[in-house]
Amino acid sequence: MSESRKYWTNLLQGSHMTQVSARFMMDTPLQRVEKTHVEKTVELPIPPKGVTVASLVSSAWSLVLRQITGKRDVVYGFVVAGRNIGMPQIQKVVGPCMSTVPVRICFNSMRTTIDLQRHTMNQYFAMGDADSLGFQDIVENCTRWPSGTKLDTLLQYHDIDETPVVTLSGGPDSEPCSAQLDWFRKPYAAPTNIEVSARPNGKTLGITVSSDGSLLSTESATAILTMFERSIKILSNGRAIPLDSINLLAVAARRNQPKIPDLCPPAYLTFQLLSLMLGS
C-alpha cells in the first residue's frame, strides 16, 4: 500500500485534473437526461515497434485533450485489468478485477509522436501493482486535488471479446449446443463524464464517445470523435512527427474551413468544433 501511494504521489505531483466537459456543456440542459453516444469504425492502427495498440490509443486521447484545452500537462482516467496485484493465482480469479487509474502526460518532456507513445507505455508498465489502489484513495492520499475530485474523461481499451460464444457439452442423449453471450444495454444509463472507448475487431478498431445528453450534445461528441480518429491515424503512420506540429483540426482544410490554431481560447475552440461538424 505504501509503495503504491508513493508511486502515485510522485507521478501526480503538481498535476491538475484536466477538465473538458464544461467546455461543451449546453447552456440549456435537456428536460430529460438522455445518453449521447457516437461511434465509428476505423482501420486498426499499427503502433511503432515495441509499443502496444492500447498505448497508441491512450496517447491519441492525450493529444485530443491537449488540443481542446491548450494545456501541455493533461490527466485522464484509464480502465485497467487490475490483475497486477501481488496475490497468488490472481490470473485465475473468476470475475472482474477492473480498476480505474489516472494517466498523466506532460508534453514538455517529449518531442515526437514516438516519444509520446513510448512514454505512455512505460508509464503503464511502471505502475505495476499500484493499479490496485482505488481512485478515491489516490485522490485523497496522493494528490492535492480537491476532495471528491472525479475523472472528467475516461478511456477504456477493450481487448477481449465481450460477446463470446460458449459451447455446452451435451448430456448422454443430447448434442452439444452453443450460445453467444450478450449484455443488457440500458439506453438511458448515461455516464456523468465523457467516456471514450476503443475496441479492436480483426483488422478494424471501433471507437466511441459517450456522455450524459445534458453534458455533451451529439454534435460535440461527433467533433471529439473526429479528433480522436485523426489522432489515431497520425500516431499509426510509424514516423516520428514533432508534437508541436500536430493540428487535429487540419481536417477543416478539406472542408474549405479556415485553419484553426493549435492553442485556442476554450469558447472559440468549442465554436469552431461545432461549426466544423455542422458544416457552417
Describe the model.
With 280 residues, the protein is an alpha/beta fold. The protein has seven helices and eight strands; from the N terminus they run ααβαββααβββββαα. The chain has helices spanning 2-12, 21-24, 53-69, 113-127, 135-142, 218-235, 266-278, and strands at 35-43, 73-80, 99-106, 153-157, 165-168, 177-180, 194-201, 204-212. Helix 3 (53-69) crosses helix 4, helix 3 crosses helix 6 (218-235) and helix 6 crosses helix 7. The model is unreliable at 252-272 and 274-280 (pLDDT under 50).
Total E-strand runs: 8
Helix-strand string: HHEHEEHHEEEEEHH
Shape designation:
globular
Approximate strand percentage: 15-25%
Instruction: Describe the main β-sheet briefly.
Output: 6 strands, mixed
- How are the strands of the biggest sheet laid out side by side? 1-8-7-4-2-3
Instruction: State the share of residues found in helices, binned by percent.
Output: 25-40%
- What's the helix count? 7
Indicate the multimeric state: single chain
- Overall pLDDT, averaged? 81
Gyration radius, to the nearest Å?
20 Å
Separation, N- and C-terminal Cα atoms: 53 Å
Ranges where pLDDT stays below 50 over 5 or more residues in a row are: 252-272, 274-280
Structural class: alpha/beta
